[in-house]
Amino acid sequence: MKKLVIVIFTTIFVSLFILNMFLLLTDDKVTRSIQMNEQIFAKKDDMRETLETKGIVKPGDEYSVRYKAEMGEISTVYVDEGDTVEAGSMLFAYDSSKIDRKIEKMNERQTKITGTIKELESEIIKLESEQKSSSGTLTEQEEAKRQNDAVLATSKINQKQDDIKDYELKITEMEQEISELEAEKEGLVIKSKIAGTVKEVNRVAEEDDDIVMLLQTEHPNLVEGKITEEEAVKLEEGQKALVTADVIPNKTYSGTIDRLTMIPLKPPSLEESQTIYPYIVQLTDETKKLHHGYHMNVQFVLKEREQAIIIPESAIMTDGEKEYVYIIKYGQLHKTNIVKGIQIRRDVEIVKGLKEGDRLVPNPTPFLKNKMDIFTTFDESKLSKKLNKFLKADEKAFLMLKGFTN
């Protein structure tokens, strides 16, 4: 009897174990549910990976404007030494007399053609008036002559209208040519690329590449520093930088790497673990509060996405080459394929498959299945502000009807 009882209980236990494993592992339509009290949200935020280092504000940079022989002689200088200029201020101009003469001839031709068009228009009006004129009853011979004259007048009108179109086309072509000449003339006016002070003026520059003017930026707008060889391989000229100063709280300056010189600051040595290289960041923001020698915190932006959909890496599962997550919606799990973008530490950008506010399983396991029912226990009054923000009214009602609240 005792053996029989043991056999019965063993059989029941094994049967229940097999049944539970079958329900968990098969993909049939047997309804299964699982308790789940944790969830995360797909959020929208900026992603930024940076490389941090230190730098020093250096005096304003000098900017030279050089003579270009192919542009001709310098005719006008607009500034003197010591003058303050803004970005876009006129510095000097090359001689534009040849272009001016071309434009003048074009304008004269336009004036003549416009006069010719007016004469043709007057002749057309006269011919049309003669076509309409009538002198009472005409003989058969007079009527035939009148009709012949009308046909001849129509032919002349058509010819003159064609001539007008040709002249108008010529005017359009000349206007285009004049615009090109004006643009060429504008290019002969050299403007400052920076705001600063004129340090030197050479009014007699005549050799190609001679310095015509030397300007210095009005305020410090450069930050110089040094980086290791491991850091240098991650950077390149033109790369974005964010710069702050401890002495100026709550202010971030934007800039770019202006110079990254791959010449070591000192002779490399096998005894040194790293070789050091210099860099200069050009700040693009107004820098009146900065002064020579200020110590700066420099962040070089290596990767950046603005307002990306972000989830933690732990929420993503892999099936072969496909990646997916489980979205929690209306009390069920929904297996959803995704396409990843960049990853910064544990945060992953999702470029396809999710939208802001989607509720996800934070740490999915292989036992989870698509369309699996879930249940949890929470107090509606204790819902987080984020959940209240993203959970739709109809979904809240659905959850409450399923007994998700106490």
Automatic annotation (TrEMBL):
<dbReference type="Pfam" id="PF25990">
    <property type="entry name" value="Beta-barrel_YknX"/>
</dbReference>
<feature type="transmembrane region" description="Helical">
    <location>
        <begin position="6"/>
        <end position="26"/>
    </location>
</feature>
<dbReference type="InterPro" id="IPR058637">
    <property type="entry name" value="YknX-like_C"/>
</dbReference>
<feature type="domain" description="YknX-like C-terminal permuted SH3-like">
    <location>
        <begin position="309"/>
        <end position="370"/>
    </location>
</feature>
<keyword id="KW-1133">Transmembrane helix</keyword>
<dbReference type="Pfam" id="PF25989">
    <property type="entry name" value="YknX_C"/>
</dbReference>
<keyword id="KW-0812">Transmembrane</keyword>
<feature type="region of interest" description="Disordered">
    <location>
        <begin position="128"/>
        <end position="150"/>
    </location>
</feature>
<comment type="similarity">
    <text>Belongs to the membrane fusion protein (MFP) (TC 8.A.1) family.</text>
</comment>
<dbReference type="InterPro" id="IPR006143">
    <property type="entry name" value="RND_pump_MFP"/>
</dbReference>
<keyword id="KW-0472">Membrane</keyword>
<dbReference type="Pfam" id="PF25984">
    <property type="entry name" value="BSH_YknX"/>
</dbReference>
<feature type="domain" description="YknX-like barrel-sandwich hybrid">
    <location>
        <begin position="65"/>
        <end position="208"/>
    </location>
</feature>
<dbReference type="InterPro" id="IPR058639">
    <property type="entry name" value="BSH_YknX-like"/>
</dbReference>
<dbReference type="InterPro" id="IPR058636">
    <property type="entry name" value="Beta-barrel_YknX"/>
</dbReference>
<protein>
    <submittedName>
        <fullName>Efflux RND transporter periplasmic adaptor subunit</fullName>
    </submittedName>
</protein>
<feature type="domain" description="YknX-like beta-barrel">
    <location>
        <begin position="223"/>
        <end position="299"/>
    </location>
</feature>
